[in-house]
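Glycosyltransferase RgtA/B/C/D-like domain-containing protein (Thermus composti), 436 aa
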Amino acid sequence: MRPLLLFVLPFLLGLLLRLGLVGLELPFWYDEVWTANFAAFRLSPEAALSRLVGEDSHPPLSYALYRLWAEALGLEDPLTHRDPGVERGLRILSALLGAGTSGLTALLAGALGASWPAALGAGLLYALAPAALMREAEVHVYPPAAFLAALALLLWARGRYWGFALAAALAFHAHYLALPLLLLPALSFGAKGLLPYLLFLPWGLHAVPLQAAGLPDKSPFNGLPEKALAQMAAFSHSPEPALVAVGAGLWLLGLLAALHPKGRLPGLTLLLFLGLWLLLLPAATGFNAYSVRYVTLPLPLILATAALGLSLLPWRTAFLLLGVPLLAWSLALPLTTRDYLAFRSPSLLALPLNLAPRKVTASSKPLGGVLKHVCRPCQVSLWDGDPGSLREGYLVIGLNSLRIAAGEHPHLLPLLRERARLLGEQGQILLLWVRP
């Protein structure tokens, strides 16, 4: 009965929280539109593969899972208008996978030797973790990848080689960071542990060199490393000091587990992964690999090893150290909801445009992609930053893009004051009406 509860309680909490965000029925943001292209927009397999290799930086399995889910539920984008039912249906798969990862985290902690209360706490923490909650209420590659990586780690901890090999091979085809995360667990099985890596070779040899060549161009999307490091420490897009302190404590507990015989292998697994992720990957590719979004993959291992470390302490101390992050992340739920809304600022701004569709100019390709998804009747084009090219219609522009353009063209701001009217603002995005 206890193993069942160990899975079910975190699963139910994780599902409830994720469905709460899904239930807001906010329109897709850019990354979700991109993922939905492979699921609900019905690209042919050939076109999907070509686009993945030529434009994306992920392996194909997560996209294929969303495609199968969409086929099973009959989720197909109507092309003529945004369908909230399609968005909700695709996000439900993410929520189910995230809830499953919550339960797997608790089972992983138990399999590593954590006490039952500490293992349960690890699962509940994953359910509440801001970074995981954000990612697993949207259509993205991370929910399938985190689930498969957690499943592989659990099967490794239980000594189930064939199950581990299958789950690891699937995880490698869902996200490339699963490769370093599962390296030490694979080697613990001896030479046969390399089987998942051999199974990955066909895709790796075909796609990775082409995708890696484009990685430096994608670095700006991850923001400044110093800001990302604070977010990674806090497991949140809003690195409030209290969340940074709580998150740093969990990181520390997870890493210190390597000092104890029971936690040596999982602790060293985490240390090796961090070195390969944060040091080797940027050095080898020129890619800025610092982003809180990637924390979702090692998070089950971090929390499971932290739970193992707590189990080695006196129970009163362990109870206190476990209660603090549970309370902090519970209190941070409104903050997580705010961050979830912030990512969809351009989408929310674009919704009213359906009432009076006109020509829309976007300041960047991601903004343009969102606008085309949300306002299908609108004629969307990209702005080159030249004030002389502005025409009558809507202008959707990020504040950072506006600052850059104003620095290059000093007469831009006076021109906008004369010809533009502010219609709305969401987060760092402005909606303007530009008259002739």
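Residues 345-434 form one domain. Strands lie at 359-362, 379-382, 393-398, 420-426, 429-434. ok done for today
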